[in-house]
Amino acid sequence: MSLKSLFSKINRSSESTEDTSNEDFMKEEIIKIDEDDVEVVLHNEETIAKKMRNSNVLKKYFQLGKVLFGMLKDIKTGVYTNVPWLTIATIVMILLYVLNPMDLVPDFIPGLGYLDDATILALGIGWIESDVHRYLDWKILEGETT
């Protein structure tokens, strides 16, 4: 099953009826994610973390960002394998969006620049929340067995 058909299947079964331009943007961008994008995100971890840590709007997502990076690293090294590509692509798209200063609302605009980043973070996390919870449960179990 292709990523596009998987995404549309998930989207049809979604309980949310909200139809926003940010959500449409995410749908369009998520299907473009590939392995090179994963590398770009992992290579820019410190830059993304610094941006999240230093922005009042994004600061509340900082710890979640650390979890997402940990999940990507565990997936890349093969330590954690119980995750669909859609989840990986969503994580990468979220973090690439945060990294990009010239997104829908450029980050340099005072008071508004990070609001779109926070919106993309919130929407994306909503889509993959159960996979993130599964990963955290796995991390807890791994900690108990090691």
UniProtKB/TrEMBL annotation:
The keyword Transmembrane helix applies. It comes from the Bacteria. Residues 1-22 are annotated as: Disordered. Residues 88-123 form the DUF1232 domain. Its main location: membrane. Keywords: Membrane, Transmembrane, Transmembrane helix. Pfam families: DUF1232. The chain crosses the membrane at residues 79-99. It is a multi-pass membrane protein. It is found in: Endomembrane system. GO terms for cellular component: endomembrane system. This is Uncharacterized membrane protein YkvA, DUF1232 family.
